[in-house]
Amino acid sequence: MRIQAVSIATVLATTVQVHGWSSSGPALFAGASVNVKNSALFSTETSSVDTSSYANADRYCTDHPNNNVPPHIAELVGRGLHTKPDHPIGIVRAKIQEYFASLPEEYHEFDAEDPIVTCTQCFDDLRIPPEHPGRSPSDTYYISDDTLLRTHTSAHQSMHLRDGYETFLCAGDVYRRDEIDASHYPAFHQLEGVKLFDPATVSAADGLTREEWLQSPECKMISDDLKATLEGLMDHLFGPVEKKWSEDYFPFTEPSFECEILYQGEWLEVLGCGVVHTEVLEMAGRGDRRGWAFGLGLERLAMVLFEIPDIRLFWTSDDRFHKQFQAGQITNFISYSKFPPVFKDIAFWLPEMFVENDFFEMARGIAGDLVEKIDCIDEFVHPKTNRASKCYRVTYRSMDRSLTNDEIDALQEELRVSSEANLQLEVR
After folding, report:
1. What letter would DSSP give residue 279?
2. Of 52, 45, 196, nearest in space to 115 by CA
3. Buried b / exposed e along 317-329 (16+ C-beta atoms within 10 A)
4. What does the pLDDT look like over 154-175, one tens digit per residue?
5. Residue 183 and residue 318: Cα distance in Å, rounded?
6. What are the beta bridge partners of residue 149?
7. CA–CA separation, 188 vs 107, rounded Å?
């Protein structure tokens, strides 16, 4: 059926950058009721662990000197929103898996893997170099020097390849320090897909140099299969739409592609993907094979599909939110409250190594989900001292109640004190 559209402004508001695949609005779609046929998609044959078993904050907040996982992040782990049939994230996941269940290949489904991974799994196995900004503690939650909360579901790709899987989907919660607004949250969900090809179909490419492989008919055949598969997914989600492909770059695929669709009269970037890099396959012990991979961000799909205006709502325990959704049904979210915001400004001189994400993370740690967004509203460089200053406007808003100035003044004062004590910011 044709998917009913929402405003283009809603779509564009979901742009976000994450480690691994670009998720600048991946697979955005919206509409009226849609039935998801196969409820068995939530009983995956390859998962034997309940995600709730990971709900133990002590696993993530340790006494390691380089641990930077705050309690408010540790408390989110193990919620398993993507495995809940009545949750928007789970409904979107099922819709995608429904499509792959209709294909000739059998895709093994992984949905309950340990969110703690190693640096090797998350970065090295995927050709993400040590100097990449995504490996910085300002971007990533480290448990120790060598372990972290996964920043993308691609962290499990090489493990599954080593274990012999050739076609699989991997869904899970991922974590990243990020800016604060209605479409960014430090915990979100991704779905990854991988397909390897029969060696007989690509044997003519054996022994080719990198340049020869990229120009080979076999590489083109894999690329064409990837594009055809994902174009089918786009039509499954949106109904028939015009599509456009362009080249992109990811460390773990070569060649890499970006897909755009013509949606409500504008071209929208919806998907990143590519042919799995030969070095990634070699490191996974599958150097004799070739294949493709893609990744999707589930929150961005669900925000547009259900017309959910604020990413924080996915994590609420309010029944007024959860009672609106049923397994297999895609219906528009009806807002049950819109309490007024409280605005507070904070300005400070910047130290030499200032990183915005550290300030954002501190604000989340102090005020939690009461922080709706933080905007930089002014920048200033002193003409004599050349010192730089920024002023940020913090928007506080509860989804459940009206806030008082007194309680927000207390939070803002704590933010000011902590900024000076922990980030060496000189508050103006």
Report:
1. H
2. 52
3. eeeebeebbeebe
4. 999 999 999 999 999 999 999 9
5. 19
6. 116
7. 23
